[in-house]
């Protein structure tokens, strides 16, 4: 069995510093106004019983990615390790993948005019490094690794902690797992205060 990359985000450890967002923009030269990785600030409840939550967001690198199926030129593909990537030389900017993604994780790069999203900093992975967002997380909230390796920290967390995924009803089988997520905050009926690619 080969590698299957996944990410666990422990919301109990997230301090909302946005260092992951800044590191991602710097590492991947992401233009102003769009994000591969962002932290939603969410508000649930009604006054006076209101709660605020942080929800770091990125491409979920789904096991069954709807974005791959709709690409008419095969620019979006899934590697054997599960990472969903875009070949910018093939992408025609048709936005089908953007419409198909239930997580709002894709956008059109305003400079290149192609679709773009998180790719786990794939060049860093090939060099044996962690994604920039994981490397810079000061709270240690982000854990990345091989889900198929039972000795990896990511596999241990998924096996032993109560994890949740965003929008499981889509059957995309997202591979970004959250620990400590408030059910109201991960459902689509929340009030979004600060968003990413919206």
From TrEMBL:
Report keywords, A-Z.
4Fe-4S, Iron, Iron-sulfur, Metal-binding
Please give one Gene Ontology molecular function term for this protein: 4 iron, 4 sulfur cluster binding
Query: Matching SUPFAM superfamilies, A to Z?
Result: 4Fe-4S ferredoxins
**Which residues does the UniProt record annotate as the domain 4Fe-4S ferredoxin-type?**
5-35, 50-81, 82-111
Pfam families cross-referenced by the UniProt entry: Fer4_11 (PF13247), Fer4_2 (PF12797)
What the entry lists under Gene3D superfamilies is as follows: 3.30.70.20
The name this protein goes by in its record: Fe-S-cluster-containing hydrogenase subunit
Report the source organism: Desulfosporosinus youngiae DSM 17734
